[in-house]
Specification:
- This protein is mainly alpha-helical.
- It has a domain of about 280 residues.
- Helices cover about 65% and strands about 0% of the residues.
- The chain contains 19 helices and 4 strands.
- The termini are far apart.
- Belongs to the MLO family.
- It comes from Hibiscus syriacus.
- InterPro entries: Mlo (IPR004326).
- This is MLO-like protein.
């Protein structure tokens, strides 16, 4: 690869070869676009507005990644023409000096590992200039100044491949996240059906008095460890791994939500499980998004993958620590709800009623937890995409994976975080965040919400039309505007025309 000759340009290439390549690329793009269109059409037919908006956001994220790739293509020559000194370019390498020297000396070998290593040096080597068909002029220009390119043409091409791999992993992780979350919440449908049975109504008799600690919710959350905040966090930390959402917690939170936000006697009529599903679909728009702060953290991740920082020992654990902290906080919120029930009295009538409130969440913002989940999911997808890209480009035994522990940690953490976040924490978030102060608009189904919006818009337009018609009639008749008409300014009567008002 180091001594590759200049390749043929398009003027030396058969037109049929160019046409075949363009036809295949266009065909693949049309097929992908048609598939996305059919998925969106199916979501609109099923009245899945939130999922359709999430699909549109995924399309916009893919367009952003494609735009980044286009900028790299257009600016490839400009970036390669930037020359920097060898002293500056010799810092922050993924390989150490001994590894780079051994790779340079093993250039005569022609095996797979050596080939991958030589490709790695295209972006990390500073003492040796590699001439490529697309960057020969820029590298010769820098070599004449005893400098090296800022980023070589090969390095930019490898970034193109990384962007493609990142796009694939981002889409797969979005689909897998929603699928695992819905699979976990599907088991709640059975509990929801039990609320309509006679056995449930008998066991939850509203006229029965019981001690708070004797209820199922009290036995689970009221114990000696709840009096100590440290023990509470330790117990709640382990609870997210075993029955993170038990039946008693689901039914108790359901009853508390209905009592706080809905009319009386709605316990057996309201489908709480469907409401949570609609709320999760609405929040999924945030999960699939890539905000500027997350992009900034992803760039920091690329920066820290340098030799001597031992990034494989701490970078993969950051998303794991964040998601474990979020899961523990959600369990603590449920326990604190139980403590508040006990503080109101040792005897409860009927089912224990939890009181929703934003003060239970960090900074009184339940939605902050969703942003943390979004950060964890994208960073996990980014790290696995980076691992797959370095494996493909430079081999499994490259400088990026110098130790076997690196490979084991990255793969195991990627799988563990995805399962833990999608199957455990995300459903728990969907349930606990319903205990906020405000009720979400997804309390109405898609058709009812659309009908209410249309009614509101129609009423608003009718009011504006009537108001404008009344003012125009008065102006044409040249009459003073009466204060009784809507939208008219208040009139001040003369002093002699004022009548005294008497109050009984």
């Amino acid at each position: 690869m180091a001594g590759a000759s200049r390749g043929r340009s398009l003027e030396e290439t058969p037109t049929w070869a160019v046409a075949v390549v363009c036809f295949v690329l266009v065909l693949i793009s049309v097929i992908i676009e048609y598939m996305i269109h059919m998925i969106g059409k199916w979501l609109r037919k099923k009245h899945k507005r939130a999922l359709y908006e999430a699909l549109e956001k995924i399309k916009s994220e893919l367009m952003l990644l494609g735009f980044i790739s286009l900028l790299l293509t257009v600016g490839q020559g400009l970036i390669s023409d930037i020359c920097i000194s060898k002293e500056i370019a010799a810092t922050w390498h993924p390989c150490n000096k001994q590894q780079e020297k051994s790779i340079n000396e093993s250039g005569h070998e022609d095996n797979t590992d050596t080939e991958h290593r030589r490709r790695l040096l295209a972006i990390s080597n500073t003492g040796r200039v590699f001439r490529r068909s697309l960057a020969g002029a820029s590298e010769d220009k820098c070599a004449a100044q005893d400098k090296v390119p800022f980023v070589s043409s090969d390095g930019i091409h490898q970034l193109h491949i990384f962007i493609f791999v990142l796009a694939v992993f981002h889409v797969l992780y979005c689909v897998l996240t929603l699928a695992l979350g819905r699979a976990k919440m599907r088991s709640w449908k059975r509990w929801e059906k039990e609320t309509r049975t006679i056995e449930y109504q008998f066991s939850h008799d509203p006229e029965r008095f019981r001690f708070t600690r004797e209820t199922s919710f009290g036995r689970r959350h009221l114990s000696f460890w709840t009096k100590n905040p440290v023990l509470m966090w330790i117990v709640c930390f382990f609870r997210q791994f075993v029955r993170s959402v038990p039946k008693v917690d689901y039914l108790t939170l359901r009853h508390g939500f209905i009592t706080a936000h809905l009319a009386p006697n709605s316990d057996t009529k309201f489908d709480f499980q469907k409401y949570i599903n609609r709320s999760l679909e609405e929040d999924f728009n945030v999960v699939v998004g890539i905000s500027p702060p997350i992009w900034f953290l992803a760039v920091l991740f690329l920066l820290f993958n340098t030799h001597g920082w031992y990034s494989y020992l701490w970078l993969p654990f950051i998303p794991l620590i964040v998601i474990l902290l979020v899961g523990t906080k959600l369990q603590v919120i449920i326990t604190k709800m139980g403590l508040r029930i006990h503080e109101r009295g040792e005897v409860v009538k009927g089912v224990p009623v939890v009181q929703p409130g934003d003060d239970l969440f960090w900074f009184n913002r339940p939605r902050l937890i969703l942003y943390l989940i979004n950060f964890v999911l994208f960073q996990n997808a980014f790290q696995l995409a980076f691992f797959a890209w370095t494996w493909y480009e430079f081999g499994l035994k490259s400088c990026f994976h110098e130790h076997v522990e690196d490979v084991v940690i990255r793969i195991s953490m990627g799988v563990l975080i995805q399962i833990l976040c999608s199957y455990v924490t995300l459903p728990l978030y969907a349930l606990v965040t319903q205990m906020g102060t405000n009720m979400k608009p997804t309390i109405f189904n898609e058709r009812v919400a659309t009908a209410l919006k249309n009614w509101h818009n129609t009423a608003k337009k009718t009011h504006q039309t009537q108001q404008g018609l009344g003012e125009s009639i008065l102006q044409q008749a040249k009459l003073p505007v009466s204060p009784d008409l809507p939208g008219s300014p208040p009139q001040k009567l003369p002093e002699r025309n004022r009548q005294p008002q008497y109050f009984s």
